[in-house]
Amino acid sequence: MTYSAPLRDLQFAIHELAAYDRVAALPGYEEFTPDLVDAVLEEAAKLAANVIAPINRAGDTNGSRWADRQVTTPPGWSDAYQQFVDGGWCGLGSNPEYGGQGMPKLVSAAVAEMWKSANMAFALCPMLTIGATEAIELNGSAEVKQTYLPNMIAGKWTGTMNLTEPQAGSDLAAVRSRAEPQGDGTYRIFGQKIFITYGEHDLTENIIHLVLARLPDAPPGVKGISLFVVPKFLVNADGSLGARNDVQCVSIEHKLGIHGSPTCVLAFGDAGGAQGVLVGEANRGLEYMFVMMNAARFAVGQEGIAISERAYQKAAQYARERVQGPELGGASAEKVAIIRHPDVRRMLMLMRAQTEAMRGLALVVAAAIDAADCHPDATERARNQAFADLLVPVIKGWCTETGVEIASLGVQVHGGMGFIEETGAAQFLRDARITTIYEGTTGIQANDLMGRKIAREAGTTLFALVAVMRADCAALAASGDADLAGIAARLAPGIDAAEAAGRYIVENFRRDVKTVSAGAVPFLRLLGIVAGGWQIGRAASLAAQKVAAGSSDPFYAAKIVSARFFAEHVLCQAQGLAQCVMNGGASVMALDESLF
Amino acid sequence: MTYSAPLRDLQFAIHELAAYDRVAALPGYEEFTPDLVDAVLEEAAKLAANVIAPINRAGDTNGSRWADRQVTTPPGWSDAYQQFVDGGWCGLGSNPEYGGQGMPKLVSAAVAEMWKSANMAFALCPMLTIGATEAIELNGSAEVKQTYLPNMIAGKWTGTMNLTEPQAGSDLAAVRSRAEPQGDGTYRIFGQKIFITYGEHDLTENIIHLVLARLPDAPPGVKGISLFVVPKFLVNADGSLGARNDVQCVSIEHKLGIHGSPTCVLAFGDAGGAQGVLVGEANRGLEYMFVMMNAARFAVGQEGIAISERAYQKAAQYARERVQGPELGGASAEKVAIIRHPDVRRMLMLMRAQTEAMRGLALVVAAAIDAADCHPDATERARNQAFADLLVPVIKGWCTETGVEIASLGVQVHGGMGFIEETGAAQFLRDARITTIYEGTTGIQANDLMGRKIAREAGTTLFALVAVMRADCAALAASGDADLAGIAARLAPGIDAAEAAGRYIVENFRRDVKTVSAGAVPFLRLLGIVAGGWQIGRAASLAAQKVAAGSSDPFYAAKIVSARFFAEHVLCQAQGLAQCVMNGGASVMALDESLF
User: Fold this and answer.
1) How far is Cα B312 from Cα A427, in angstroms, rounded to an integer?
2) CA-to-CA distance for A319 and B573, rounded, in angstroms?
3) CB contact under 8 A, B167 and A561
């Protein structure tokens, strides 16, 4: 088995850490009992391990291939996709009105982690489809929704997001693609889009492109961009497929990783214009995208967690099997498995503890998203939404940056074998490397965190989070348990550091935005470490309660070790990062541009 | 131009930071005047930029190819190698007695950095040859030396190091290859060696393999390994090439990076035994290897610096050219080059400042190696040797780990384009990834540093270094210069942290080797950061003196900015790392093996 879903940790994070009972009590989620959730997780784990993980390596070595404007996915891809569809996994979290199963985000997110671990390149296809369905559902007309959503949610058609153009990457204001109204309610779309994930493939009969483009009378910049649905095959009134639309895949990229996922250059309108339909109102396309972006960023943040889990499993297995050298300080000259060597153990613990902390934080945020969506009380909805809004860029930025580091540690644990492609550890590093870039680079996430999520509201949500973390930390310190107190001893200064850096941001952001922004990424990492430490500290506290109540489940003892390790090896970076945020801005901008 | 050698910074590091005048005053180096050194650097820079760098990408995309036990190097490789040989670059630092030019390490190391930046996969070939010549020169008989050294030093033949076997990676005690004495002073070698860099290629008429193997009566473990010279073609008494020896390249590896460099599986003795000659005494092979290892580890550490420089240059160029988004906090909506965005600038400064700090430290150590080799005073030789011995694992470990991070930052600066292979930034990350593994992993370096270089001598050299650093730091603090004082304010607690962690090691290593060793890599990183900060602080001080003396060379102003940035963004990690070393050991080893 190349991947075994971490069911126990997922269940712990869902039921205990993120308190699933509170989610199940929300209106609309009553039917999703804890037992049903566990059954769903177990079924997903089987599909991930038996069907999706086994084709991961073939996806890497073969890659998706392009010829004659067609894309052929790797061997096994099509069968696996059909099993994924047949199992009803596409619409797990989608609206039941259009055939979805309407499960809480907390559950669908946990399930999604498994797909991403099993095969990140494969999992991108349903992930993008979900994003497209959400954009249509939130903003589309009834007719557009009825035309596209049922087939997309069923997985019969897939969806894409067409934002990037050669001159418009992080800066979507620079989008130049044009949309010409035809007078009949439809538009002709012209332009070239790049980096379009699964922009063309052979998995489904149709592909529904969501495309950002400008109307002829649109104002310049971000307020002149509209969103269009442009199907690969037009859809007739009876739902059957009509003519091939004027959108063509003119090439795919040769990438460092995720070779199985075709990254397409799409040409719209080379033969007279691609027929499209406006989604929502004109000139509000970017705004619609931003609404969806939280979901997409959360999903990419989870890729960081998922690839970490996969890299950890592979490294731990190798470390248990590879025999090299005698035990350090041991009396015997007998060779031992390298897992007994302290530095190998340290690397494995770094991989494991950070993965658990990231997963815990992500699923707690998922539960907050559920509450933000469904809680009957408007104040609770708003409070949860603010919490999620603050932490989504952290999950995207911190979990992906850490994911790259963990995948790199996975290579290191393998020694020389890690550098050999057949081993498979290097693929995780290559795949992970895109996660800090797409769906907004870490720098973009950090600017969002610092500017929109903290400075704009003078830190209200951040400082509320600090207060909650501090209370939880005080409980650890007062627990009378040496491990928990040890965790608190490192978490407390971390929280102080995050608060101090937050105050610095609030006080200085408007006055000197460039200098303060130079510390945006270090601050994001700081908040990630502290929030992750908070959650793994909470996890340790819950575990200690079980142990105190007589549980002999080794899972709980291991959780406490992970948390202590995280406190001692990761949280100790917090104060240095805060110093860097608060004192490091000037030297970032001091060197004249010409001297680089 | 894809690579432009950082001549100004190399010259500064050689002449000012490492005080070349003191090296030139050593017996044997008198003829190498500063002007001659500069001329050598300039010629090397031309060859690196015009001949070796241009074939780097073709080396990556084509790779070395294996067929019928032959290896074909990538297009252009052979021509470039011939130009390299014709220019006399192979023997730059080698013994004049065998045709070398006998230049100081300080000069040959600076030149070697350029080859590694230009094309790391290419530069491995002469680097391995130098290692093999040094092993032969130190331990070989007069006949062996005369037979092999002149042609190897001229570059007419290349050399390899055959250590690793499938079961013997970091643990060379597990070597199983056998050597059977033939009664005529020669031996028949049998066994399989893996990961042999340039073990087979088409660049030269002969390849001289240095091979670790066991004699029939050898004791088990490390004290039973002997070193043999095994040429691909036997060498006749008149120096002409004789019969093909029984060593065959049975495959090459498919690797994450350095595709141009063939990584070979070599089979010795499949047809009756490969003829070899013993180097030095029986059973002392590993000891001979260890003597050479300092040089090899230094050379790999430099790969980290070299790839950082190359990645920096590429990222800085892209950041100057790529236009995206308006200036943060600016009044205008006009789009600017991304180098004006604070987080991009921060990434470039991280790349630049760390590269400069690593280069400075490495060349100061190179000067110490020259003094250790040639100083007329035995105390000075011993002092310099101890300094170099302490810092070589730091240069190997810290510079390569940082090199991987910097190459990854280089990808990040490019955004989505960084993930596209044609851009070239990803190659540097793929190439860099081996440097923390081969020639001893970072964990091996850190154990060497902590055990052999610190605990064994109760920290004598480390604490002497601390005293020197502290004196230099005090001078910065007392300089009256705000920048220098700002650097000192961060360097001082860094030095304290390194000293405290060092005392912890000295006091606890013997008592609890496993727990202490769990902090070996964090300690190595800590010492790297602090020693690098010391050298870039010294560099800033030298630069400030030039500025105070009226120099308007922007190089000096830039150096001060780099040093401040390093202090504020890198040195601030020191205390957290020390905490991790001193408090983190127990949680590393706490989790039961079965729970991973």
Assistant:
1) 24
2) 29
3) no
Q: What average pLDDT score do residues A144-166 get?
A: 97
Token pair of B407 as six digits: 């190459």
Q: Do B577 and A572 touch (CB under 8 A)?
A: yes
Where does A73-151 show beta strands of DSSP type E?
Answer: none
B143 included as an active-site residue: no
Nearest-Å Rg of the Cα atoms of chain A is: 24
- B327 touches B340 (CB < 8 A): yes
DSSP assignment of A439-451 equals TS-HHHHHHIIII
Residues of B in Cβ contact (< 8 Å) with A350:
none
Contact B498, B525 (CB under 8 A): no
Nearest to B346 among A352, A437, A521 (CB): A521
H, E, C per residue of B86-131: HCCCCCCCCCHHHCCCCCCHHHHHHHHHHHHHHCHHHHHHHHHHHH
Is B572–A589 a contact, with Cβ atoms under 8 angstroms apart?
no
Residue B309 near residue B6 (C-beta atoms within 8 A): yes
Tokens 């790797």 sit at which residue?
A: A74
Whole-number pLDDT of residue A293: 83
Which of A195, A562, A591 lies closest to B349 in CB terms? A591
Three-class SS state of A275: strand
Instruction: Chain B: give the shortest CA distance to residue A509, in Å.
Output: 10
H helical segments located in A280-421: 285-321, 342-374, 378-413
Nearest by CB to A416, which of B169, B324, B512?
A: B169
Contact: B349, A576; criterion CB under 8 Å: no
Is the pTM above the cut of 0.95?
Answer: yes
Asked whether residue B1 carries a pLDDT value surpassing 70, the answer given is no
**Is beta strand A186-197 parallel, antiparallel or unpaired with respect to A206-213?**
unpaired
pLDDT of A220 above 70: yes
Query: At residue B290, does pLDDT exceed 90?
Result: no
Given a contact cutoff of 8 angstroms between Cβ atoms, the answer to whether A253 and A196 are in contact is no
* Nearest chain B CA: its distance from A445 CA (Å): 11
Cβ pair B561:A591 closer than 8 A: yes
Closest in A257, A412, A569 to B441, CB measured: A412
* d(CA B96, nearest CA chain A) in Å: 36
CA–CA separation, B334 and B332 (whole Å): 5
Q: What share of chain A is helix, strand, coil (3-state, %, to 5)?
A: 60, 15, 25
Choice among B180, B439, B457, B568 that is catalytic: B439
Annotated active-site residue in A16, A309, A439, A499: A439
Angle (CA) B248 B253 B259, round 5°: 115
- Which amino acid, A203? L
| Statement: residue A97 has pLDDT above 90 | yes
Give the per-residue pLDDT at B294.
85
A375 to each of A28, A31, A33, A107, A431, how far by Cα in Å? Answer: 10, 16, 17, 17, 37
What three-state secondary structure class fits B228?
A: strand
Query: Residues of B with CB below 8 A from A561's CB?
Result: 587, 590-591
For residue A1, the model assigns a pLDDT of 64
Compute the nearest-CA separation of B579 from chain A (Å).
7
Percent of chain A with pLDDT over 90: 98
Distances (CA, A) of B8 to A39, A231, A457: 65, 57, 48
- For residue B161, the surrounding DSSP H or E stretch is strand B157-162
pLDDT digits (tens, 9 = 90+) for A318-330: 999 999 999 998 8
* Whole-number Å distance between alpha carbons of B9 and B359: 9
Token pair, residue B86, equals 């014709």
d(CA A513, CA A506): 11
How does pLDDT run across B326-365, given as a tens digit for each residue?
999 888 989 999 999 999 999 999 999 999 999 999 999 9
Say what the pLDDT of residue A291 is.
79
